[in-house]
Specification:
Helix content: 10-25%
Low-confidence stretches: 1-20
Number of strands: 29
Largest sheet: 16 strands, antiparallel
Structural class: alpha+beta
Radius of gyration: 33 Å
Strand content: 35-45%
Strand order of the largest sheet: 12-13-14-15-16-17-18-19-20-23-24-25-26-27-28-29
């Protein structure tokens, strides 16, 4: 009886009381009104170009932010009000009040008129000269919000840009620079665009010797009387520009100090040697080969000062990774001559770091890893970075079919990064802001999949890494050697190997000798950017040179081998494309498209296991367990753990859409749809339905959906995704969509379909 009345009457009353208190209005003083936020609406008789960007920019001007709320409740405000009587600024109450609580944001702290003026100013600076902004305060009891309405008309656009007459050398140069102008006819007039054009021209002038020139010496005049909402722009040099800003300067000498400190005496009193065109300071603390430093200095002596060369030098020296402080500055030493000073303060060259990590992998293995790294930043006295890494980890797998699979891994890795290209020809990349690097790597891995096998793997590679720009990066490994050996297989796994030619060939002891190349493009980070893109393309080719050599030498026996062990021959191509669109500063849409194809030929009948494709799991199609999907419409034995390794393919196609949104503080949410599958290149009797067929492969696409919860503390992200399938490719062709089976109330349906994914970091 008591329980009946509790759930029917008492609990609802307590809930109502809690909701009322959590709104944060009960303890407000007389006349105080709680500010609950603002809304912005754009209104225009014509289509607004870049409407989303304009609205996002104006929304960013709205201040202050209201108290955090969840479904109308404000728990932080309630905590603040419940603990605010802290008289001594100490104790638990004070900590809760200041750390967990949040003071009320009152309407009296809001200045809508100021926000309106800021919006108008921003719109005018963005070409919307005839815009207007109104606001309305809507109050209900002790809460109020603000409605902003921005009325826009067609923006003004650039008609023509006029550059100064060539009456001086500076003005003549400015005329030469107009071919690269940012001010294109038809572009919307934007103050920011004019500012960037002034910066561009100023930088070009400084790059041509005008050391003291700044953007402030340039002025734009705008003429809006052209008509038809067009503007003519007139650029000129200000009359008050000082004479030295209009004078060209020559670099007379460059002095390099590789052991600079703030207590250094005057440069002229230190011992220097002439190396190439530079004066190099020598002292008893010398730790670098001077050539390594000079290779990163690109300032020409006895030539006009170059702003670009200064910046390239600064970035290249910082990119060496051996200096705590880098400064490149110039001083006038008489007439029109400059002295360049390159000041470098070294870091500590050796370090030892230990890390304890929580790791989650694409195959759903989760567990702790212990890493130890020894680093020497000046291994051969030429700013080479040497790393020795030891790592070990124990992992276990979460999931239905694979639950309880355990794995132990131990590895030793050495890397040597040389800050230049080691090649038969000289490449300095003089116009690049980034240090080109040669990488030599050796790696050994021991893996114990406790229910299946042990695997020994050794890898060596020689390659290059270089950045073309901040957004574009290239990696080339012309030499890549990998050897792996399977041992100590369990009875169940060995039986599966004996019964599957495909699996046996995948795991056979062999060499992978070849090379790979990858290109990455990534939009530079910016908090104001609405869209961003990531793209990675990779080509991996192995075995061709060895195969050709064996053919030319007339070797007998097939497949061919090296040192008594066969080698793999294949070509593999992968694409990874991601697109992010910010709906608000806190929410975004994330898209990913993955595709890849691997072709085994010549000396190989199948791709090596480490090069095959798998799908499903925490970072893939989350409605299916790791490696439990495909190939094609093939249906595995759901009771067999061995199929965890058996469901692989030569072709992969995957797409993901995820909506990410804030919940409260560091707690985030997500809703997602994943789709894709893998296929075999050639028919395999062991896996009926697994072969790729261009005419109907899309009928074998698996689809899943779900919701996610994240704890995002910036330096780490813990993720829980709950997903279920919408389309199962192994069902009969007409029955693959499973909408009619969805039944959250059925424990049996939940057991067979709900997949829980626990991981660290975002899926992409």
């Amino acid at each position: 009886m008591i329980q009946k009345y509790f759930f029917r009457f008492i609990l609802p009353l307590l809930s109502i009381a809690l909701l009322t208190n959590c709104r944060g209005t009960k303890k407000l003083s007389e006349g105080q009104v709680l500010y609950t936020g603002a809304e912005l609406e754009l209104e225009s008789p014509v289509d607004i170009p870049n409407k989303a960007e304009v609205k996002n920019e104006l929304s960013g001007l709205i201040r202050p932010d209201p108290n955090n709320s969840i479904f109308g409740m404000r728990p932080q405000l309630w905590i603040y009000q419940a603990t605010k009587d802290t008289t001594n600024n100490k104790g638990l109450d004070h900590w809760i009040n200041t750390k967990l609580g949040e003071p009320p944001v009152l309407m009296q702290n809001v200045n809508p008129q100021r926000i309106r003026n800021l919006m108008l100013n921003r719109l005018v600076n963005s070409g919307y000269f005839l815009a207007d902004v109104d606001y309305d305060i809507e109050q209900e009891n002790k809460t109020a919000d603000v409605k902003y309405l921005a009325r826009l008309h067609e923006p003004y656009r650039i008609n023509e840009t006029f550059y100064p007459d060539s009456t001086s050398e500076v003005k003549a140069l400015i005329n030469e620079f107009k071919s690269g102008t940012l001010l294109k006819p038809g572009n919307i007039y934007e103050l920011d665009l004019l500012t960037r054009e002034r910066d561009r021209i100023s930088n070009r002038l400084r790059d041509n010797g005008y050391f003291y020139f700044t953007p402030d010496y340039l002025i734009f005049e705008a003429d809006s009387t052209v008509g038809d909402k067009k503007i003519n722009l007139y650029l000129d040099v200000k009359e008050e520009a000082p004479p030295k800003a209009l004078r060209k300067y020559i670099v007379d000498e460059v002095i390099i100090n590789p052991n600079y400190s703030l207590t250094d005496t005057i440069v002229q009193n230190q011992d220097t040697v002439q190396l190439e065109d530079y004066k190099y300071i020598i002292n008893r603390n010398q730790i670098f080969d001077p050539e390594a430093i000079i290779n990163s200095v690109f300032i020409p002596v006895n030539e006009t000062y170059s702003f670009e060369r200064k910046n390239v030098t600064l970035n290249r020296l910082m990119g060496l990774g051996v200096f705590r402080f880098v400064n490149v500055r110039f001083e006038e030493i008489g007439g029109n001559k400059l002295q360049g000073l390159v000041q470098l303060s070294p870091l500590k060259m050796k370090s030892l770091r230990f890390e304890l990590q929580a790791v989650s992998k694409s195959n759903d293995y989760v567990g702790p890893n212990l890493n130890a790294t020894f680093s020497n930043r000046n291994f051969l006295n030429g700013a080479e970075l040497f790393e020795l890494k030891l790592n070990s980890g124990f992992e276990t797998q979460f999931g239905n079919r694979q639950k309880g699979l355990n794995s132990f891994e131990f590895g030793v890795e050495t890397n040597l990064y040389i800050p230049r290209f080691i090649a038969p020809f000289n490449l300095r990349f003089e116009n690049s802001y980034f240090v080109p690097k040669t990488r030599i790597s050796l790696d050994y891995r021991y893996l114990n999949r406790m229910q299946f096998f042990k695997l020994n793997s050794a890898t060596g590679s020689f390659g290059y890494t270089w950045r073309e720009t901040f957004a574009r990066e290239h990696r080339l490994n012309p030499i890549y050697i990998n050897y792996f050996q399977l041992s100590d297989t369990t009875g169940a796994f060995q039986e599966r190997l004996n019964n599957s030619d495909y699996l046996e060939r995948s795991f056979e002891e062999q060499f992978i000798i070849g090379g790979d190349y990858s290109f990455t493009y990534q939009t530079p980070n910016s908090k104001d950017r609405i869209t961003s893109v990531y793209f990675n393309g990779k080509v991996d080719i192995a075995g061709n040179s060895l195969y050709l050599l064996k053919k030319l030498t007339g070797a007998e026996g097939f497949p061919y081998d090296i040192f008594g062990t066969s080698y793999a021959q294949f070509a593999k191509f992968d694409l990874d494309f991601r697109y992010f669109y910010s709906l608000t500063p806190e929410s975004k849409l994330a898209f990913r498209f993955l595709t890849g194809v691997g072709i085994a030929y010549g000396n190989s009948e199948t791709l090596p296991f480490v090069k095959q494709y798998f799908i499903g799991g925490t970072n893939s199609i989350r409605a299916f367990e790791a490696r439990s999907l495909g190939p094609g419409s093939y249906e595995p034995d759901s009771a067999s753990l061995i199929s965890f390794y058996d469901q692989s393919g030569d072709i992969k196609l995957e797409g993901n859409i995820e909506y990410r949104f804030p919940i409260y503080s560091i707690f985030k949410g997500a809703a997602f749809i994943d789709a894709g599958n893998i296929w075999l290149m050639d028919p395999n009797q062991e896996k009926p339905g697994g072969t790729f067929n261009f005419e109907d492969f899309f009928k074998e696409i698996a689809v899943g959906t779900g919701l996610g919860f994240r704890v995002d503390a910036n330096f780490f992200v813990i993720r829980l995704d709950v997903a279920f399938p919408l389309r199962k490719p192994w069902f009969a062709p007409g029955d693959r969509w499973t909408f009619d089976e969805i039944d959250f109330g059925s424990s049996e349906w939940r057991r067979r379909n709900l997949i829980f994914n626990i991981a660290i970091g975002y899926p992409f």
